[in-house]
Each structure stands twice: as structure tokens, then as C-alpha cells.
Design goal:
Residues 137-165 form the Intradiol ring-cleavage dioxygenases domain. Its cofactor is Fe(3+). Residues 1-20 are annotated as: Disordered. The chain is α/β, with parallel strands linked by helices. It has a domain at 93-281: Protocatechuate 3,4-Dioxygenase, subunit A (Sandwich). The protein has 7 helices and 14 strands. It has helices at 3-6, 12-27, 35-56, 60-75, 79-86, 88-95, 206-214, and strands at residues 117-118, 121-123, 134-143, 153-158, 178-182, 188-194, 199-200, 219-220, 223-229, 236-242, 261-262, 265-266, 273-276, 279-281. The protein has a 6-stranded mixed sheet, with no helix packed on it. Strands 2, 3, 6, 12, 13 and 14 form a 6-stranded mixed sheet that branches. Strands 7-8 form a two-stranded antiparallel sheet. The structure holds 3-methylcatechol and fe (iii) ion.
Length: 286
């Protein structure tokens, strides 16, 4: 019995369509942005494109090829993927540059709100014979003065041992490897999960076509996604990566920071790996 049989790789169009639907559900209300700002930003984007066309003498064939590609990105539902892989990291950088607490990283396209609530010491929802190296992930959530934050919420989601995310690849239980953990009276958590595999973004859609046409690769290093929150504190959206991963230096999404690399070590009882990592949350709005 192999999971490779039931766990078919999602097509770009399948996972793209889900990511697009989910995005519209979560961010349906459009932001009211002042006209002056819309005009300034839109003008600067367009001017940058015009300048590039002049500098590189972009041809009509190239213009039509890009136009066709942009149309196809939408048809594949790959705008969430495109934006989060190639743009979000700079938005995250700007949004968090004042922080004193833990470093964060991009959310990416595969977050799902409302995952099952779990106690501080828990096992993430997973299949009975979930493949992969078991990982005990423990630590504490504190504020920037080092005070424990009991009852803090840690939303954790990650890919399985084949690099697939539940709700975006067929054949996986709805909440597989997704959970919302509440820290104990000392702000501690102790989560049993498995180590995810490196993740290759879909290669059969428009983003894949760009990657191939440009001679890039489609890999992200293996990663855990987290949202850590506590009333009165800034939401921390982060990812954790694994020391030794071959894609730490060339993440297609440019979302690795040295502070986010963990180095699990084998547990004494031989049942997998363990690692400690603490989160420090900035106070809200100063
Ligand atoms: C991912 O799993 C991810 O985290 C990002 C940022 C983009 C594509 C897939
Ligand atoms: Fe991811």
C-alpha cells in the first residue's frame, strides 16, 4: 500500500482553482484606497513597464506572448501562486520592518482558517500511517519582555512527506497536517507532527511555463507554516525551514531568513526528531 497511489499530484488548474476560490472567500471585501494612492502606484507600475519595453526594445511578438500568458495565469487560477511566490516576500519585508520580536515570512497560497483546535501538548491531525520522519516541535510563546503568553494561538500547517497540502491535493483528509494549538499556562506548546518534504510549485500551469521558459527551478525548501497570535499582540506569520535543505539558498519564493532555520536532532528514544523554537510577539500598534 503506497500513498503515491491514492495521493495523485494535483494539477496546476485544480490547486490553482482552489487557491483562487479560497482567496476570494477570505479577502472578498475590496480595500478602500484613496484615489491619490491608487493613481500614484498604478502610474509607477505602468511607467516601470513602459521603461522596460523601451530599454529592451520589446517586440510585438513578445508583447502578444506576455498578454497570452497573463490571460492563462487567470484561467489556471494561478494568480494567488504567482503573487505569493514572486511578490509577497517584499510586502512582508515592508510590513514587518519595525518588529523587535520573531522574524516572520510569507503566508503563501495554502493557508486555511479554522483548523481543528488542539491542546498545548498534541498531535497534528494525520493519517494512521502518515509517512515521514516524526517531529516533536516544542517551545514557548512570549512577549518582547520575555513574559509568557498563555492561551496564545499557533496555527500550524504544512505539506506531507510527498510535498502535498491537504485541501489543495486530492486524496488527503480535510485537515491533514493542519491544526490550531493553544499554549498552556506557561506559554508552552509541544506538537507531534512529521517533517514535511521540499515543495515543488505546480510545473504544469502558467507559473511552471514561466519557470521553464526562464530556465529557473520550481522548488521551495521544506517548511512549516505558522500563524502565532495573542490578544494585544501583532499576528506573526512565519515559516520554519530545516538546516541542510538543498533549497535554503535558492527558494523560488525568496522567503528564507537565517533566523527561521531549525535543526532538529534525533530523539533519545529513537522515535524521530525533536526541535525547540520560541516565538516572541511584538505589542500591537505603537
Ligand atoms: C507553498 O507551499 C508556499 O509556501 C508558497 C509561498 C508558494 C507556493 C507553495
Ligand atoms: Fe508552503
Amino acid at each position: 500500500m503506497s500513498h503515491e497511489v491514492t495521493e495523485v499530484k494535483a494539477t496546476a488548474a485544480e490547486s490553482g482553482e482552489k487557491a483562487t476560490e479560497r482567496f476570494i472567500e477570505n479577502h472578498g471585501a475590496n480595500l478602500e484606497t484613496p484615489k491619490e494612492r491608487v493613481s500614484q502606484l498604478a502610474t509607477e507600475v505602468l511607467t516601470a513597464v513602459h521603461d522596460l519595453i523601451r530599454r529592451h526594445k520589446v517586440t510585438y511578438d513578445e508583447y502578444q506572448a506576455v498578454k497570452g500568458w497573463l490571460i492563462q495565469v487567470g484561467e489556471d487560477g494561478e494568480w494567488p501562486l504567482f503573487m505569493d511566490v514572486w511578490v509577497e516576500h517584499v510586502v512582508e519585508e515592508v510590513a514587518t520592518d519595525h518588529r523587535e520580536g520573531s522574524k516572520g515570512s510569507i503566508e503563501g497560497p495554502y493557508y486555511v482558517p479554522g483548523s481543528p483546535k488542539l491542546a498545548a501538548a498534541c498531535t497534528l491531525p494525520m493519517r494512521e500511517d502518515e509517512p515521514g520522519t516524526p517531529l516533536l516541535f516544542q517551545g514557548q510563546v512570549t512577549d518582547v519582555s520575555g513574559h509568557a503568553l498563555p492561551g496564545a494561538k499557533i496555527e500550524l500547517w504544512h505539506a506531507d512527506d510527498f510535498g502535498f497540502y491537504s485541501q489543495y491535493a486530492p486524496g488527503l483528509p480535510e485537515w491533514n497536517l493542519r491544526g490550531t494549538i493553544i499554549t498552556d499556562d506557561n506559554g508552552h506548546f509541544e506538537i507531534n507532527t512529521i517533517q514535511p518534504a521540499p515543495y515543488q510549485i505546480p510545473t504544469d500551469g502558467s507559473c511552471g511555463r514561466l519557470i521553464e521558459a526562464a530556465g529557473w527551478h520550481a522548488w521551495r525548501p521544506a517548511h512549516l507554516h505558522l500563524k502565532v497570535s495573542s490578544p494585544g499582540h501583532e499576528l506573526l506569520t512565519a515559516q520554519l525551514y530545516f538546516q541542510g535543505d538543498e533549497h535554503l539558498e535558492d527558494d523560488i519564493a525568496t522567503a528564507v531568513k537565517p533566523e527561521l532555520i531549525i535543526a532538529p536532532s534525533p530523539k533519545a528514544d529513537g522515535t524521530g526528531n525533536e526541535v525547540s523554537y520560541n516565538f516572541t510577539l511584538d505589542p500591537l500598534g505603537i
